[in-house]
Structure formats: structure tokens, C-alpha cells
Amino acid sequence: MTHCITCSAPVNIAVIKYWGKSDEALLLPANSSVSVTLHQDQLQAQTTVAASHHFEKDRIWLNGQEQCINNPRIQNVIREIKRRARKQKTDSRDIAAERLNWKIHICSKNNFPTAAGLASSAAGYACLVYALKCLYKLEGDVSAIARCGSGSACRSVHGGFVVWDKGQRLDGSDSMARQIQPHTHWPDLRVLILVVNEQKKHTGSTEGMQVTMATSQLLKERIRSVPDKIEQITQAIHDRDFKTFAEITMKDSNQMHACCLDTYPPISYLTDVSRRIIHLVHCFNKHRQETTVAYTFDAGPNACLFLLKKDVKKFLHLVKRFFPPKTEEQDFIRGNTKQLMENLSNDCEEDLSYFPFDPMEDSLRYIIYTTPGPGPQELPSDQSLLGEDGLPKSLS
Amino acid sequence: MTHCITCSAPVNIAVIKYWGKSDEALLLPANSSVSVTLHQDQLQAQTTVAASHHFEKDRIWLNGQEQCINNPRIQNVIREIKRRARKQKTDSRDIAAERLNWKIHICSKNNFPTAAGLASSAAGYACLVYALKCLYKLEGDVSAIARCGSGSACRSVHGGFVVWDKGQRLDGSDSMARQIQPHTHWPDLRVLILVVNEQKKHTGSTEGMQVTMATSQLLKERIRSVPDKIEQITQAIHDRDFKTFAEITMKDSNQMHACCLDTYPPISYLTDVSRRIIHLVHCFNKHRQETTVAYTFDAGPNACLFLLKKDVKKFLHLVKRFFPPKTEEQDFIRGNTKQLMENLSNDCEEDLSYFPFDPMEDSLRYIIYTTPGPGPQELPSDQSLLGEDGLPKSLS
User: Fold this and answer.
1) Cβ–Cβ below 8 Å for B278 and A261
2) Where is the Mvd1 C-terminal domain (chains A, B) (predicted)?
């Protein structure tokens, strides 16, 4: 007997950032955060979990490579899910109970390159937790369990617009994510991810947060001010008030990176290309005399831009003008391109004197065009990543 | 009758930065600051002022070009100097009194390119104020008058290590600079200025400070913490405690730039080259297992580095290795090069695996090697920039 479940989960982009833990072991954040879950058509983790009495040991494959299952964070997630499932079992004598003693195989992959530097671990852990939840027929919220894998993974457990409450309890049991609006709430909202061409390795976010918590004097002031910002951006999302949403998003991104720079030794995730993107957005908004595009940056140089459907073509035209690909690439713009008209450059003339800089050729690898999207989903069994032998299909 | 005075004044580099005014009109700073005055052999403004009953109007030439004398800051300085001189005159019937009613000619130049982005206005205003002080035989401190020209100019009125107290009085009369140690106090201290090759125009510091004051939430926290830092760095200078001096200097530079990034729209003075210099310094210090080099950045990408004489050759070797000039330039390293041995690269082998990055060719324009230095000085009359006709010698 083998029980097998395949699920998918999305990436999320924080608009009020999580930077700094109040508890390293429990992955409790120093401040609450707000995110937008992105559509899985463009960015998705997919995970198959199988439990069988034939399996001799727990095993895990990520993007085709077997990994060590003893990774503490993976172990935390499996242990916590099983603990919750056993507790539920004693209450309801669930049919899935016997599976709890079987060994499991886990196989996971992303539909986008890890090299893109897009929080793949958040989607990955959310997907693992959601698949195990389905496997063991667990009820209730599992975002706090996803959090034990990767802090921001708890936000990928929900679709649409999500708040991760830092919680009050010392055991972290109330540090969980909740949806504040579904992805259908703001149909005109669009997302562009500008993937920057760069080789450099940056400080990982886990390590970066630790050093910032330990050394940045300014972070304390930031943490104090987050609750007010969350209230404001929640209202802006509720009202579909793009201007307020955009300005809070940009200021919060800048402030997180300011705290990184105030770290000792300082941490810089923004490169000259990132800073040029910021400049382009502000020039565009000034030129249009309203805030029509917002940027946000995580622990890397890639920009995530928010804008409304009506402005996408005009802005993309500018991006292609000032960050031209080296050769005219077919797939420079990826994702939901059917929504875009074929020829971007015809009806999009802007007064270029508003943009006082030269093009930076070959500085972007590609652009992903997407929208907010729903949360994790169970997929039909034909999409399983594991074969009937319990081994990855990609290896057979 | 023509009275003519020629003076020189130095550049200064802040180690506790001035960023933000509490009074725009009086140029009062939001926080006190600390600086090191650099030696005039390398970086110097030179100014001749002449007063004559033959002159028909006040005139000014900067670096060979006549400028409008009605610049409000120049007017502020001239008015304030004359006001003080008249007040003194009524007390002492000074011989210089009659000159106060004559028109003046001012001629000023720098011995370094303005394009280097090194606070030339500070040296320029300090020099103008000092020359006028000599011309009118004014007594007492003139740093508060220099402040009315360009805030940080008040620090260039003194040599060595200088504090600019923000002061308490609303009229700004106690917002002045004082020397905390002469330049001879720390004979081993050396300064390297890495002039970055870049075309981009940045936000001017006057405008930048205004926007930061108006929009940065984090700046308030920074301003609150400055008095403690000034106390600590003053003690470190007194003790010639390089490690403490260096760490406070680096942290304060990072924090000022963090507040710039927390500004809306954000301001970035640091480029990829600046950030690489920062990284090189931290790698070097880690490798040496002690803090032997410190960086600080003003409103631009150029780095000012502090280090001790014993470490200059080793560190310069690394700078040349990782920021090589495009062609082997004779004058890549300028300034006090007689102090350096001819062949930098021989006895300076470092384990380069500590420096995990590739060289950035042609990213530095040149390097200036200098030391702390004395304050403004009166020069012999043969160094006058004005001829006997009261016009710039460079024009005749």
C-alpha cells in the first residue's frame, strides 16, 4: 500500500518585510509582515509525498537531486506535522493514522530556476507542509508549521494578500499567517519581476537577519513602526488604493535595505542595476504625475514591481528601452505575455528626457509578468513526481 | 591703496557625519559632527582677497571663472565678517577699519580637480572667511561665519581633529567648530582617498539632507545616538585607539548612507565600486584579525580610508590588485608618495583567497595618499592670485 499526494504552492513577495528573528529556534519574526502571493502559472513549487510500508527510510529529492533528509528544518516540519496528526488521530480515529508510522518519500521541484533568486524556499516549504497535511488528512491552519521550515513559507500557505502575525506566545503557536484578501479582490493588479544579471553571491537572508538583529541600531526604530504600516497597507489593499499601497511598499523596501546597510559589517543587496530600476520607477511616477509603479527588493538585486494592468505596456516599453537584452531574445519577457500586445514599442512613446540616464545593456536576465494568485493546491495523481516504485520519475 | 591677503585652507573629512539641518537659513546642523582635517600639500583651497578704494564693485573669480558675487551664501559670509569687524572697530579703532568701506575682489582656486567630488566648498568657504578675517584683522573664532557659507566649512577653519558643536542658541551663534587634537597628535595616521571613476551626477548634499530630514523615519533615531558616538570617538582619538576610531567611523558612514536609503525617494551615493571597497576593507581586517583600515563615504562614491603608516603598503598593494588602472598610469597614486617605497608589490604578498572577488578594472580614477594636517594659513604675498591691477593673474 502506497499513499501518494501531489501539491503545488506559490511564491510570495513581502510588501512589509520580515527582517530579523526574535527567536532563532522557533523562527519567530521580530515584526509582523504583509505579502502578496504570486500566481502559480509563473512561479510554483510542486511536491509529491508518498508514504508506504515498503519504504525503508525517509528520503527527499529536490530538483532531481537527492538531499539529506536530516536537514533540521525539514525534520522540524515532519515532526510537527506528525505530532499534530497523532493528536488529531486520538480525537477522530482518522483513516490516515496508520500512514503516520510509515516512512515517507518526498520529491519537489520548482517551475522556475533557483538561480533567479526568487524565494524558492518559501514555496518549497509551504508545498511540503501542504502535501503532508493532505497526506495525513490534517485539519486546521498549518502556516505555523511551514514557518518552522522557512519563516516566510508561512505566508505561501495562503493565496492573495496575507499577513503574518508575529504572535505573542513564547512557543510560537500564534505566529501564523492569515489571508486578508483573496487574489480575486484586486483584478487589475499586475506584477513584473526583473531578474538581474549577476554572478555575485550575497549574504544569505538567515545569516543577514542575524547580523542585522545583533548590530543595527536603526532596526529597533523600524520594528517599532511596523504595526502602523501594516494597518495602513491593509486598509490600502482593502480599498484597492494603489497610490498608498505603492508608497508604503517602496518605503518599506528602502527601510529594510537601510537596516541592512546599518548592519556591521554592512550588507548590500541592491546593486547599481537595482538602484537604476528604483530611479526609473521614481522618474516614471514623476513624469506621469502619479504613483503608478512600485518596487520592492528582497535579499538580492531582483526587483519585484507592482502596477495596474493599464500601465503595464507603457512601463515595459521603458524597461526594454533602458535595460535592453544583449540580443533580441524571444523569451526576455516571460509569463502571462498573451495579455500583452505583440508590439510593445509602437503606442508607448514617452518623453525620454524625463529619464536622465543611458541604457544598461544586458543588465537584466529576463522579466516575469504575473499577477497575484491563489494558495497551495492538490494536483491530480497523474502529476505525481514519484513513480509507482516510490522513486522520482525524472530518474527513471 | 590696495590691501591684499592670500590664504590657504584644507579639506576635512567627517568621521561622525553631518546630515540634516535643523535650520536651513542659519545652516544649523541637526547633530554635532567630528572631522579630520587633511593635509594641504594634497588638497587645498587658495584664496586672495583684495580691498581697494579703486575697485568699483565687489567681484569674485573661482578657478579662473568670474562668478556672480550675489550668491546668497557668499553675501552672508561677507556681511557677517564686516558686521563683526565694524563691531570690533568701535572697540579698538583698528587700522583696518577704513578698508571696510572699500569694494573687494576675491580670487579662489583649488589645487585638486573639483570633479574629484571632494568637499571643495568646505575648503573654499573656510579659505574665504580666513582671508577676510586677516584682511580686516578680525579677532576670535570665525568658524560660525564659515558655517554660513557651507555647513561643513566651519570644520575646515581648524587643523587636526575637529568637533562641530551643533549649539543650543536659536541664532546659531554657538554652532561652531573647535579643535579637539592638533594634527601632530597622531603622527602615524594616514589617509587614502580612492577617487571613483564615474560619470553619474548625484543628488547634491544640500538637497539630499532636506529630503532626508523631511522623510526619513530612521534619521531621528540616528540623531538621538550621535552625542554618545562623539564622546566615544573623541576618547578614541585622544587615546590614539585605532580600532575604536575605525569602527565608529565605518558604522557612522554606513548609518548616514542607511538614512539616505530610508529617504523617499531614496538617495544612493554608494555605487558597486564603493560597495566593493567596503567589502575589501572588511575582508582585509578579517584576514589580519584586527581592524587596520576604516572607510568613510560622503555624498558621493569616493572612499576616504584611514589606516596606520605600517599598513599602507600592504593595503595599497591590494587596492592596486583589485582596482587596477586600465593602463599602468604614472600618477595613479598621488600625494605623499615619497613616503612609499617604489615597488609596492614585492614584499606585500597576501593570501588572496581571503578576497573572494574579481578585479574591477578602471573603476578608480586615482588614489590620493595624505595625512591629517593643519588649519588655514596666511601665505606670502608672492603667492597672490590677484595682480597689481586687482584682476586674476591667470587672466593676464
Assistant:
1) no
2) 191-378
Report strand pairing: B2-10 vs B377-379.
antiparallel
**E-only strand ranges, chain A:** 2-10, 12-16, 21-23, 28-29, 33-37, 44-52, 59-62, 65-67, 103-110, 161-164, 177-181, 189-196, 293-297, 303-308, 333-335, 364-370, 377-379
Does B368 have pLDDT greater than 80?
A: yes
CB contact under 8 A, B254 and A261: yes
pTM of this prediction?
Answer: 0.94
CA pair distance B121, B110, nearest whole angstrom: 10
Q: Which residues are CB-neighbours of A339 under 8 A, at least 6 positions away?
A: A309, A312, A369
Please give the pLDDT value at position B346: 52
Answer yes or no: do B268 and A270 touch at CB < 8 A: yes
Strand arrangement of the beta sheet that strand A303-308 belongs to: A293-297, A303-308, A189-196, A364-370, A333-335
pLDDT band at B282 (very low <50, low <70, confident <90, very high): very high
Residue in chain A lying closest to B254 (CA): A262
Say if A340 is an interface residue toward chain B (CB within 8 Å).
no
**pLDDT tens-place string over residues A70-85:** 999 999 999 999 999 9
pLDDT band at A301; cut points 50, 70, 90: very high
ipTM over 0.90: yes
C-alpha closest to that of B137 among B82, B180, B177: B82
Return d(Cα A8, Cα A20) in angstroms, integer. 28
Domains of chain B: 2-183+377-383 (3.30.230.10), 189-370 (3.30.70.890)
Q: What is the DSSP string of B200-269?
A: -----HHHHHHHHHHH-SHHHHHHHHHHHHHHHHHHHHHTT-HHHHHHHHHHHHHHHHHHHHTSSS----
| A272 vs B: CB within 8 A | yes
Minimum mean pLDDT range among A119-128, A273-282, B335-344: B335-344
Give the minimum alpha-carbon distance from B333 to chain A in angstroms, rounded to a whole number: 26
Residue B95 pLDDT greater than 90, yes or no:
no
Q: Which residues of B touch A227 (CB under 8 A)?
A: none
Q: What is the DSSP pairing of strand B364-370 with strand B189-196?
A: antiparallel
Quote the pLDDT of residue B91.
61
